[in-house]
Amino acid sequence: MPTLDVELNGETVHDIDAAEAFVTDGPFPVALDNSGRSTHVHLHFDDELGRVTAVDEVNYFVADEATRHVHVSTADVDEPVDGKLKIVTGYGSNTRYVDVRVQPSTETPEEPIAVDETLSAPPERSPDLPPRQRAVNALDRLVQRGGIAGAVLGFLAVAAGVALALAVDSALVWLAVGLALTVAFGAALLAVA
Hints:
Blueprint: E1 4-8, E2 16-18, E3 21-24, E4 28-34, E5 39-45, H1 47-50, E6 53-54, E7 59-62, E8 67-74, E9 81-89, E10 94-102, H2 131-144, H3 148-168, H4 171-192
Parallel strand pairs: 1-4, 3-10
Antiparallel strand pairs: 1-2, 4-8, 5-7, 5-9, 6-8, 9-10
């Protein structure tokens, strides 16, 4: 994207230095580069250019030794449009004209994207896996996560608890073993989920 560079306060107060001519084929920035004290700048496109260009505002404040970029939007044109950009500083004490040409864009327009009608329908849900495949997948995840040692130790702890409950034959021990089995089963389900 070409930039129209404008130097302000270069040689003297309210001095404007810019190119004689500027050519663009689309939107462009005007870089107001202030070399001195703060100043106000007025930008005005003549009638021909005013039909195909636009700026948010026409008066700009540029601080001491600062640069301000002004975005100029342009309409699409079929034929070149020539005109003048008037740059004014010091409340009219200094004026500079730049010949501006807006040319047709050299970019080829993008072709519209075709949308297939099948994209408007929700995707089909894949069928649920059979219970045997889910068990194999759960065992595979258990092995990948390194849970084999935990599963073996859990199984040994449950077997020891059942053996103790059979040996003591107490309702309290059976209750404790049942609670331990429930917790172990829940942990195993969480591990493979």
